[in-house]
Amino acid sequence: MSPFNLDLFGDTEPEQPPRREQIGAQACVLRGFALPWLESLLTALEGVLTVAPFRQMVTPGGFTMSVTLSSCGALGWTTDRSGYKYTHNDPQTGQPWPRMPDVFFELAQAAAREAGFADFVPDSCLINRYVPGAKMSLHQDKDEGSYAAPIVSVSLGLPATFLFGGFERSDKSQRVPLLHGDIVVWGGVDRLRYHGVLPIKDGHHPRLGEQRINLTFRTAG
Ligand code: MD3
Ligand code: FE
Question: Where is this region: Disordered (predicted)?
């Protein structure tokens, strides 16, 4: 509460925690930003997953990822023994990835704007599914055509501890708790930071059950 706005009558709302947390020079967490969009987001997600269900993928090194994935938008991220790449078609069906639902695009653009990145035009949404125990090791996102655009990530379901590292794998990383409805936006000088997700803990989320789903929006082409 501001010292110029004393709550003399005790009749104002308790102060809310900051909704926007800066975690790097050009990286921030927007707490609960996705919550008002949740039901339309989940309806649209269901439609995407009917056409392009979650599947396991193998890294170029031959490891099966613990996270299962899908994509929507003009480009979808995939990995197999030959490398990481963005493709126009789902390798499982040979069909184009499902189009990005309008509500996905609008939410990603609104979050980017809130974080100071005007006119974000994502052409790819990677959908990651984590069950308890699943994790993502420290890595950089380097498969996109340009690093000028930010990346927007929407966390849904079970909580996660996000690792926000430096520019070398060995740099110390900060741990950022991410909850259902939180959105993180990275860009500019923070775009090539190492990052990862610690193994998801057992738990039950009232809306999503025993899983965490992360939507990652990028301008990939
Ligand atoms: C931080 N996904 O799919 S959000 C990924 O929660 C990925 O599923 C995580 O990392 C997840 O590649 C984390 C995305 C993210 C993307 C780019 C970043 C975090 C970033 C660039 C710099 C720093
Ligand atoms: Fe990443």
Answer: 1-20
pLDDT per residue over 101-130, tens digit each?
999 999 999 999 999 999 999 999 999 999
What residues sit around ligand 2, an ion, with C-beta below 5 angstroms? 141
Structural domain range at position 159: 21-218
- CATH code for the domain of 183: 2.60.120.590
Give, using CA atoms, the residue closest to atom 4 of ligand 1.
Answer: 153
CB within 8 Å of 179: residues ≥ 6 apart? 31, 32, 155, 159
Ligand 1 atom nearest residue 153's Cα: 4
Does the reported pTM lie above 0.85? yes
For residue range 126-160, list pLDDT tens digits in order.
999 999 999 999 999 988 888 889 999 999 999 99
Amino acid at 119: D
- Residue 7: per-residue pLDDT: 74
Amino acid, single-letter form, for residue 118: A
Is the CB–ligand 1 distance for residue 28 below 6 Å? no
